[in-house]
Structures are given as structure tokens and as C-alpha cells.
Amino acid sequence: MSTITISSVEKVYGEDTVALDDVSLTIDDGEFVILLGPSGAGKSTLLRLLNGLERPTEGTIEIGDETVSDTRPDVAMVFQMHNLVESASAYRNALTGALNRTSTVPSLATWYGEEAERMALEALDTVGLLSEADQRADSMSGGQQQRVGIARALTQDPTLLLADEPVASLDPKASEDVMGYLRTAADERDLTTVTSLHQVNVAREFGERFVGLRDGEVVFDGSAEDLTMEAVEEIYYDTEAETAESMPDPASNDRARSVATPEEGP
Amino acid sequence: MATGTNTDEDRPDVEQAREVLWRRRWLRRSLYGALLLSVVGLTYFVFLEFLGFSFAQLTSERATTEMQKFIGGLFPPNFEDMTTYTKENEITGIDALVVSLTSWELGLLWGVIPGIWPTHIMDTLATANAGNGNVMVSAAYTTVAAGFAGTVLGFPLALVFGVLGSERVVPFPLNFLFRGTMSTIRAIPAIVWTLIYIPIFGITPATGVLAITTDTVGNLGRLFTDELEEIEDGPIEAVRSTGAGRVQVVVFGMLSQVTNSFVAWTLYILEINTRIAITLGVLGVGGLGMYIENQIGLLDTGYQNAMAGIFMVIFIVLTIELISSRIRARLRPGETESSTLLGALFGLFDPNKWLGRL
Predict the structure, then answer these.
(1) Could you tell me which chain A residue has the CA closest to the CA of B232?
(2) What's the CA gap between B205 and B131, in Å, rounded?
(3) How far is residue B134's CA from residue B136's CA, in Å, rounded to a whole number?
(4) Residues 6 or more apart from B346 whose CB is under 8 A from it?
């Protein structure tokens, strides 16, 4: 139902900042795709285009048979910095996922209806936060906040779940937790999922299909077995064109060591 | 230290950088010093000279003895006008205060709120007349009521102007329509607004309420706008990404981020409005300000009554400030698990929490 077809998409910011350059991909219903690539490779841009937060400069993105032209209820997004309303409870935050199904006036009175309330609580249950539902978001740990972010996305009742570096600001343990919940949620609800990730080792553990982006182009597309050390190097370092300018010390052992954490979180 | 053996000659770049930074810092300091000197000079030699303010006169013997005489005349404060009871029975001095506070009974405050209240204060409030500023408790009631009502009436308008004045909600040139209105309102002090509104309600407390309402729109609205300029983009984008409508994005993405600070700023403005209500009383619109003004006007005989009025002002303002600051402190994130307005209100009844985080 929600096969995603990305056809020759190009995204240019401002005059000449090319974020995506002729990207074509097909993502099947129910796939769990992880986007890899260095900062500025275009991972976030691709996710934002899929979400309809931005439009491509060239090319089209279709979800099912529909061209993405705006944000839509069936596409949900989990953000790197959680983007929760800090002073509101986990439950209230999760409920905002139901806004698109609620007409303006009842929503202003925070009257979302029984179904939405039940869905928000189910979503919180999926991420293991049912008993913390009434807790303020800013009193929660980073990992918990991100799980609320996932719950909000699930309350939206999406068919496509997007996640932009969902664990980049978390410690390794919390990263594993959050990715685990994300994967479980996707499996339980049979969601097509596209997430970008920094940590290659975490990606290997949770991903099915990996797409590597560099300089706005797809440079890798394959399964966990295909994602060899060489492939990772290929994604993160342009082995041919790399010069001393961008790599002050191109000694090969240094490079191998930094592969595990090729980028830093904010 | 690993670099301990390095001498200056080994590190010419470091020495050079240090010198450059030192020179810049010196330049900055001299500039600030010159600025400070000119500010002080301008104030002392030009402005104070022009205004006839002299430190010699301030500390002169005449000034000191006159002031001592005046202050001496204020004491002991006379609480004769505290309640209608003390006034009618001509109980004077501190005794009047003691009498007013020592007899308690079960009853309805303002004829509405049940509880055990000080009898004479309750009786005075029951028969209070806003236009009559001769009894302190009823004057204090007028002041508090005017400050409170003005804040409540001003709040919705401040909210509308504040939200529409924010560039985040209304695009650039249009939002200045609302910002400009608020700036104009702020340019005119509440005391002048009172004079402007006299044709509507006359010299009455109602005019004071209207002036405070207007002032609130300008000041509180501005605080709302500023607060909205500083919100984070993340939650807005998150709400937008769900496919929510424009109004929903404003309410859930933006306003929900600032509810607590809006409540906090409103309480702060309530404090200020209570003080403004006292000031406006001096114009004769009623309340404690009018009481003090009237008593001082009676010269010697009224000084001790005026002093009692000043004590009343201090008590009222400090009480409002204490309540407001306690609620505001509890709205701050992280201080308590339930940092909501309701939680903060309940917390007020828990003396353990008065000193903050215990």
C-alpha cells in the first residue's frame, strides 16, 4: 500500500547548495531502511522531503500512488532532538500526534476523542512508558523523551515512519533501547520505516536494508551482509578524491579507528 | 608539565598571540573606563547641576533635622482607621491593629468565602465601599481588587496582541501593527491613562481599573511577544509534521511551549498592577494611595495615620509578591515533579515548600 518511489530527486538550498543530487530509490511496503552517511550527505533532507516538510527542487516522491506535496497524517516523523513540548506530560505530547485527525475547535479544548486517547496510551505502552504517561517531558531522560517522540509518531497512526538521527544525542545504552523500541513498533504495526543513523554498529544490529548517501548521491544500497568494512569506508570517505585538505592525517589506521563513530552528535 | 622546558623563543607564535590579545583587552578596558567616566561626569556636572540636586544640601544639618522631625511625626503609627469597628469606637494606635486581628469568628469573607476570619476585618469588608477611602481595610480591598481586576481584564487582550505581535505567528510587516499598538500603550503611563479615562467613569476606582487594564495590554502583551520570539523550532516542526492545521501548529507547537512562562509573567504583572493601583489612588480614584494622600494632607494630625497606611501598603504588596513568586518558582522546570499551575497552587498550602525546594 505504501511503496515509496523516489524518482530522480534533486534538492538545492539557496543558490547552489546541492543537498540531494539525482536520488532514485524504491522502498517496499514494510521495509526497515537505515540511511547512512557523513554529515551533510543529505540524509535529513531526504527524510524531510519524504515527510513533506520540504519539496524537491526536481523529481518526485510518491507514497503509494500519491505524490508527496505536503505533510500528511499517514507519514510520521521522529526527530533527533525529540522536539517535545517540554512542559507538557508524555501523554499530552503523544496526543499531539492525533491533531491531524481532530478538527481545530475540539483540539483547542484538548478534546481529541476517546479513540485518539486510547491510541496515545497504546503508543506509550508500545515504547514502555505507560506508567510514566503523566510525567512532564522535561523531567524524563533523553532516551525516555525520544520514546515519547516515537509514541507521538505512532499516535499519528502512520503507514510510513521516519526517524531523523533518533539516537544521535543519546548514550550507547539509551541508543540501543530507543532503536529496539523503534524496531518493535515497526514490526508490531507493520510500518515501513526509514531512519538515518550515525552509529554503524547500532545500524547493523537493527537494520534490514542500508542506503548509503554521500554528497547527495546514493553510494550504497544493500543488506547487512553487504555492509562490509570496505563498504562503510566507501560511504563515509571518498577514497579516491579525499585529499589532505579535508583529512589532515590520512593514515589508514586512524581512519579505521574513526569508522565506528564517524560523526559526532550535536 | 610537559611544555615546561619551552621558553618564549621556542614559541614565538604563542607569544605573539598573547601580545595581541593583551593589547585588545587593554583597549577594551580603556574604552569601558572612558565610558564609565563620561556617564558619571554627565550625571554629576550637567544633569544634577541642572536639576538643583546637591549632596551638600542632602547631608546638611537643616535637612537632617527636618527629616527627623517628619519621621518622628510618623511614629507611632495610628491604626485608628483600620476597620469600621476601631474607627467608630475610637480605638487608636497599635491597639487598633491588635483589636482588629485578635477577634476571630466563623463567617463568610466578602459574604462569600466561608472560614474562620478576623471579625472586624470581615465586617468591614462586608460593608466596604470602594469610593470611600477612609477605612484602611476597605481601601486595601479597593486597591487589591483594582489591581486584580485590571490584570484579569487585560490578560485576554494582552494575549491576542502578544501572539499577533510575534513574528513567528504573523509575518513581518503586519505584526508591527500589534507591536506598535502595544508600544504606544506602554509609552503612556497608567497614571496618564487614568486622566484620559476620567470622562468615562469619573474620578472613581472604575477609571483605575480601566487604566490598569490598558497598561496590562501594553506591558504583558510585550512580554508575551518576547517570550514567543524565543521558542524552539523543534516542537513547531514536530506538530507541523503530523499534518496539523495552521491554528493547531500555533497553539500546540508554539503556545504550549510558553504556557508556564505566560502564567509566570501574568503573576509578575499582577504584582506591578497592585503597586500601580496604589499610585493611582493618589489621583483620588480610591484605595490605599488615596488614604495615604488624604492623611498626609491633614498635616500633623494625619501623619501617624499615613504611616499606618504605609505599613498596610507594605503588607499588601509583600503578600502579593510572596504568593506570586512562590507560584512562579514552582512553575520553573525541574524544580518539582508537578510543575503545573494547579500543582503550584496546591503547593502554596504546604508550608514546607515555602522556602523553595525542600
Answers:
(1) A83
(2) 7
(3) 6
(4) none
Distance CA A62, CA A3 (A): 8
Backbone angles phi, psi at A243, to 5 degrees: -125, 175
Which residues partner with A7 through β-bridges? A60
Triad A84, A14, A160: Cα angle to 5°: 40
Q: Are A123 and A154 in contact (CB under 8 A)?
A: yes
Whose cell is 547631608? That residue is B59
What is the Cα–Cα distance from B67 to B65, expressed in whole angstroms?
5
Question: What SS3 class is residue A60?
Answer: strand
**According to the model, what pLDDT value does residue B337 have?**
46
Q: Which residues of chain B have pLDDT under 70?
A: 1-9, 299-300, 332-341, 343-344, 346-358
CA A76 to chain B, closest CA, distance in angstroms equals: 6
**What residue spans define the domains of chain A?**
1-74+161-178+191-266, 86-157
Partners of A11 in the β-ladder = A20
Grid cell at residue B118: 478576623
Q: Cβ contacts (< 8 Å) between B339 and chain A: which residues? A: 87, 136
- Strand stretches in B59-103, DSSP E: none
- Write out the three cell numbers for B235: 516542537
Distance from C-alpha of B166 to C-alpha of A11, rounded to nearest angstrom: 31
* Strand A209-214 to A32-36 pairing: parallel
Please list every residue in chain A whose beta carbon sits closer than 8 Å to the beta carbon of residue B244. 96, 99-100
| CB atoms near residue A93 (< 10 Å) | 29
Cell numbers for A194: 526509514
H/E run at residue A24: strand A17-27
| C-alpha to C-alpha distance for A106 and B171, rounded to whole angstroms | 26
Grid cell for residue B200: 468615562
Q: What number of CA atoms fall less than 13 Å from residue A19's CA on the CB side?
A: 20
Q: Between A85, A108, A138, which is nearest B334 by CB?
A: A138
CA distance A227 to chain B (A): 31
How does the average pLDDT of chain B come out, rounded? Answer: 87
**Where would I find the H helices in chain A?**
43-51, 90-95, 104-108, 114-126, 142-155, 172-189, 200-206, 229-236, 252-258
Element (H or E) spanning A12, and its range?
Answer: strand A4-13
Strand pairing partners for A209? Answer: A33, A223
Q: Distance from CA of residue A163 to its chain's centroid?
A: 2
What pLDDT is stored for residue B112 in this prediction? 83
Does residue A263 register a pLDDT over 60?
A: no
> Could you report the per-residue pLDDT of B329-357, keeping only the tens digit for each?
877 665 444 456 676 676 666 665 555 44
Cβ(B286)–Cβ(B304) below 8 Å: no
Instruction: State residue A124's pLDDT score.
Output: 93
Q: What is the ipTM of this complex?
A: 0.76
Pick A1-74+161-178+191-266's CATH classification: 3.10.20.340, 3.20.20.70, 3.30.1520.10, 3.40.50.300.
3.40.50.300
